[in-house]
Amino acid sequence: MTLSAEDEHRLEQFWQFCRTHQYFNVGYPEAADFDYSALHRFLYFSINNCGDWAVPGNYVLNSFEFEREVMHFFAELFSIPAPHSWGYVTNGGTEGNMFGCYLARELFPEGTLYYSQETHYSVMKIIKLLRIKAKKIATQPNGELDYDQLATQILCDGERHPIIFANIGTTLKGAIDNIALIKQRLSAIGIARQDYYLHADAALSGMILPFVDNAPAFSFADDIDSISVSGHKMIGSPIPCGIVLAKRHLVDRIAVEVDYISASDQTISGSRNGFTPLVMWAAIKGRTLAQWRERTRRCLAIAQQVVERLNHQGVPAWRHPHSITVVFPRPSERTWKTHCLATSGEHSHLIILPHHHSLHQLNAVIRDIVRDLGPAAACNASQPPMLACSA
Ligand SMILES: Cc1ncc(COP(=O)(O)O)c(C=O)c1O
After folding, report:
1. Positions marked catalytic
2. Quick one: pLDDT at residue 380?
3. Which of 46, 51, 285, 294 is the most exposed place for a label (fewest CB within 10 A)?
4. How many CB atoms lie within 10 A of CB 21?
5. 253 close to 103: Cβ distance less than 8 angstroms
C-alpha cells in the first residue's frame, strides 16, 4: 500500500485539523484526556471478537481475554456477580440500548416499551428495527420521567408486560429517572417484578455514578435487567465504543451457535471490533478506583463553578446534583455555533469533562453566554434602542 504525495498531504492536513480541534467539545460528552499509545502496535492486526468472549472460537486473533476482564470490572462496578451476568464491548451506547431492548422483546414479545420524551433519539431507531410497540411518556421540567403518567399510560394500555427504558442521565439535562419510583408505581398498579423489564441507558452517567457518594439507584443492586454505557464519553476512546451488561439468564435465551467458527454468538454484530476491548481494558487498568473518583470529582466541581459563575452573572444555569451537564437557556445561534454547544428547543448545555482543568479554559464560552443571556442582554431586549442600558 502506497499513498501518493497528494494523499499524504491530505492526511497531514487532517492531522493538523484534529490537533487543532482535539479539545473542541464543550457541548458533547467525549473525554479527551486519554493516551492509548501502548495499543498503537495492535493496529497491525485484524483482531476480531466475533461471538462470545467466554467461548474459545476457531478465529484465534481475538482479544477475548481482555474483554472478559473488562466485563468482570463492569459487573463488579454495577453490582452483579460476574457469573450471573453477561455483556460485551459494543460499538457505543446505541448498540447497548438495542441489545437491552432485544433481550426485553425476546422475553416479552408483545410488551410495550415506555420511554420518556427526553430519551436519546436512538430509541426511535431501536423501536423501528426491533418492531416493538412503544409509548412516549412526558417528562417533568427537570428532565425526569413523569412517574404518574407512566403508571396511568400502562393502565390505559392494559399492558401486562411493560418494558421500561430508564434514563440514567438524559442527553440534554443529565436527568436520572428514579428507579425506586418506577418500581413503586408498577407495583402500585399490580405489575409484579417478574412481569416487566427494566433497561438503564447510562451512556454518560454510568461512568460517573459509581464514583460519587449517595448516588441515585442505577445498578443491578437496584434490580435493573440491563445497562448500556458509552466508552467514548466519560471513559474516553479514539474509537466510539461502549459496554452492555445484562442478567445472564436473559442473554442465554438469545445465543446462537456458529458452526464455521465453532463459537456461540449472542451479540448484535457478527464480526466485532477486537481493538476497542483493548482500549476499554487499558482505560480501566490505567487508573485506580481512587483516580476515577478524583477525575469525576474534579468534573463535578468545575461544573458547579460554571453554574455559580453563570448565576452570579445573571444567567439561570443549573445542573442535577451528580451531573457534569450544565443547562441554561438557549443562547444566540452565533454563540452555540461558535462553541459547538448542544442545543435543543429552549435549552442548551455544556458538559465538563476531564480534559477541562479549570474554569479559566471556559472563559470565552461563559463570556458569550453571559453576553447573550445576562442582565445586559435582557436590558437590550426589553428597552427601546435609544434608551438601551445608557442610564
Ligand atoms: C442518554 C444517551 N443515550 C444513548 C446515547 C447514544 O450513545 P452512542 O452515541 O454511544 O451510541 C447518547 C449519546 O449521546 C445519550 O446521550
Report:
1. 323
2. 61
3. 46
4. 10
5. yes
- With a 6 Å cutoff on the Cβ, whether 90 touches ligand 1 is no
Our mutation pick for probing the ligand 1 site, out of 91, 116, 117, 122, counting the most ligand atoms within 8 A of Cβ, is 122
296: Cβ–Cβ under 8 A, 6 or more apart, which residues?
208, 211, 212, 234
CB of 203 within 6 A of ligand 1: the answer is: yes
Quick: pLDDT tens for 206-221.
999 999 999 999 999 9
The answer to whether 38 and 249 have CB atoms below 8 angstroms apart is no
The ligand 1 atom nearest the CA atom of 119: 1
Q: Are 148 and 185 contacting, i.e. CB atoms less than 8 angstroms apart?
A: yes
For atom 15 of ligand 1, the residue with the nearest CA is: 171
Quick one: how far is CA 215 from the chain centroid?
Answer: 17
Domains, the chain, with CATH or none: 5-30+289-378 (3.90.1150), 37-285 (3.40.640.10)
Distance 233 CA to ligand 1 centre (A): 9
In three-state secondary structure terms, 93 is helix
pLDDT at 58: 87
Residue 391 corresponds to which cell in the numbers above?
442610564
Summarize pLDDT for 332-379 with one digit per residue, the tens.
999 999 999 999 999 999 999 999 988 888 999 999 999 999 887 766
Joined together, the cell numbers standing for residue 47 give 483482531
Which residue type does 123 have?
A: V
Q: How confident is the model at residue 381 (pLDDT cuts 50, 70, 90)?
A: low
User: In this structure, what C-alpha cell is assigned to residue 178?
Assistant: 428514579
Pocket flag, ligand 1, residue 122 (CB < 6 Å): yes
Model pLDDT for residues 216-265, shown as the tens digit of each residue: 999 999 999 999 999 999 999 999 999 999 999 999 988 777 777 667 88
